[in-house]
Design brief:
Shape: globular
Structural class: mainly alpha
Order of helices and strands: HHH
Helix content: 55-70%
């Protein structure tokens, strides 16, 4: 995660910190078919869901 974050942050910003990447991974593991509802929710919705479930 550390090296991935180091690669992504300069190009894409703070949304790719180690903490964020860990949350993204955790969310994907909880909701592996997230693409089915992707158009119905914003990233804020996903973040809220992962904080409630996680």
């Amino acid at each position: 995660m550390k090296s991935l974050s180091a690669e992504l942050q300069p190009e894409f910003g703070n949304g790719f910190s180690i903490r964020h990447l860990e949350r993204y991974r955790q969310f994907y593991r909880m909701f592996p078919i997230a693409s089915a509802v992707r158009t119905q929710f914003s990233w804020t919705h996903y973040r809220t869901l992962s904080s409630i479930v996680g």
